[in-house]
Sequence to fold (159 residues):
Amino acid sequence: MTDELSHFNDEQRAHMVDVTKKSETQRRAIAETTLHMEEATLTRIKDGRIDKGDVLAVAQVAGIMATKKTSELIPMCHPIMTTKVNIMFTDDGKDHLTIVAEVVTIGKTGVEMEALTAVTVTALTVYDMCKAIDKKIVIGNTHLVEKTGGKSGKFRFDK
Fold:
């Protein structure tokens, strides 16, 4: 871990990091979040019985779209051309839905923020589509699972 905060210049003012001299490499990030909901809500999602439509399909598209908008939402993020975005869902068969996003690019900066944005917006979309039947949905434990590529190398979140 480094003590340097790269988004501050010598005058301690915020700035976008200069990546001009960095080499383009393949960069990959995986992020994850979990939703806790009523068991009946998860059952209805899986059975396609939510009035607003196919929750997982809509949420998946929302996550992909959000990935492409990350630099518009987070001020110091560089616009990145992603080469792959994959949103995946798993559940525990009871009341937890896990969302995982994998984002890949060939570029000068990483895609961690894109992966985190993807899972967050995917989760918010699930919430939006289900809030009429379950207002107690909790979105939590959002974190970077893994990243590869770039100067800092590989990172893996150890549970």
Observations:
- The domain at 25-150 is CATH 3.30.70.640 (Alpha-Beta Plaits).
